[in-house]
Amino acid sequence: MLYSICRRMLRILYAVLFRFEASGLENIPSSGPVVLCSNHISLLDPTTVGTKVDRKVHYMAKAELFDVPLFGPFIRSLGAFPVKRGGVSKEAIRTAIALLKEGKVMGIFPEGSRSAAGDSAGKKGAAMIALKSGAVVIPVAIIGKYGIFRKMRIKYGKPIDMSDFIQDSSSDTLERVTETIMINIRKMVKEG
């Protein structure tokens, strides 16, 4: 309920402030586990990725945020769960896989930290979570810069075919899946 109210408000704010447009929403399955893998340019990206999606999108967030009175419970109710600083913990990975096995949607930024155009190397966590959960992987591109009345766009790409990788979760396979995800994101960012 709270998530739906916040999403409606954000849709209005994004439309007015950022002249926000989305394309490719039809590529997101209406049910079943989905991992939305996006480039990461700003702290606003989690709300940007989830604003136009009709399903609730869950994210990992820094564990320290959950200790802030009122804010911690608020972001937890919006679908965030804690991850410890210094890398993704096994507990956070287990939580992500469990959410996906329940048929939910996760938003992940494979680069881990912010970069201009998805041009830094991705980390293997998103690939591992997707392969272990059997989730559909959707590449996502945030295009434009955040600024009042500047045009922002988001593109949700076609699902990435994981059939060649599904039986193997070796380090080499995770690297190939990660690179495939990043290539798709970079391509959409460049196309604009």
Automatic annotation (TrEMBL):
Record's keyword terms, sorted: Acyltransferase, Transferase
Tree of life domain: Bacteria
UniProt cross-references to Pfam families, sorted A to Z: Acyltransferase (PF01553)
Gene Ontology BP annotations: phosphatidic acid biosynthetic process
MF terms in GO: 1-acylglycerol-3-phosphate O-acyltransferase activity
Cross-referenced SMART domains: PlsC (SM00563)
Domain Phospholipid/glycerol acyltransferase: 34-145
Coiled-coil region(s): none
InterPro entries reported for this sequence: Plipid/glycerol_acylTrfase
Entry's transmembrane regions: none
Official protein name in the record: 1-acyl-sn-glycerol-3-phosphate acyltransferase
Protein source organism: Paenibacillus lycopersici
